[in-house]
Amino acid sequence: xxxxxxxxxxxxxxxxxxxxxxxxxxxxxxxxxxxxxxxxxxxxxxxxxxxxxxxxxxxxxxxxxxxxxxxxxxxxxxxxxxxxxxxxxxxxxxxxxxxxxxxxxxxxxxxxxxxxxxxxxxxxxxxxxxxxxxxxxxxxxxxxxxxxxxxxxxxxxxxxxxxxxxxxxxxxxxxxxxxxxxxxxxxxxxxxxxxxxxxxxxxxxxxxxxxxxxxxxxxxxxxxxxxxxxxxxxxxxxxxxxxx
Length: 244
Hints:
Largest sheet: 7 strands, mixed
Shape: globular
CATH superfamily: Ribonuclease Z/Hydroxyacylglutathione hydrolase-like
Number of helices: 7
CATH topology: Metallo-beta-lactamase, Chain A
Strand content: 15-25%
Helix content: 10-25%
CATH architecture: 4-Layer Sandwich
Structural class: alpha/beta
């Protein structure tokens, strides 16, 4: 599903457009011409549907050379190993902190074990070990064909969380949502204070479109959602929680 010039959504679950499996986040395809980057991998149960959606949008899966993971939660990263197997030459990128969890398939580190026990995921959503080709630090830049993508450290929802900037577009993962909302969970690495600092940082950067990991997207004037969250933080409060 093409949503803007050079940007497509090729997977999305029940907290989005129901294009693929219920347990997929929004998976974006960023078309740089010679190369395509996927931003996030989904939950791993709809690999063939994701690839079919690429083809339906006129995107050759053979051009998909990068997989950029915002964070290691199951709905964003459990599909990484399968995509790496299906797309020859695909390079996987993650934050320096999250990379070891992905390589080892460490479900405890990403709270997938407790999420399954709580009924958030079904038993067959699993984190298969996946090689990570490059570990990204804050501010790292990479080329995707004609485009440049910059990693922005945005912990809070999860440790090792990255957002990605490309031109006027912010791919925010689960750091910020439409309406200035944030996603808080009772997991070991979720932090209100870190989330607030990440919102402050995003509000100070130059971008226009908000492309989050779930729910509504904002193709223009997206920074108003960061400003809404910032207004709560400036009163020593917390932005409104995401309702699912």
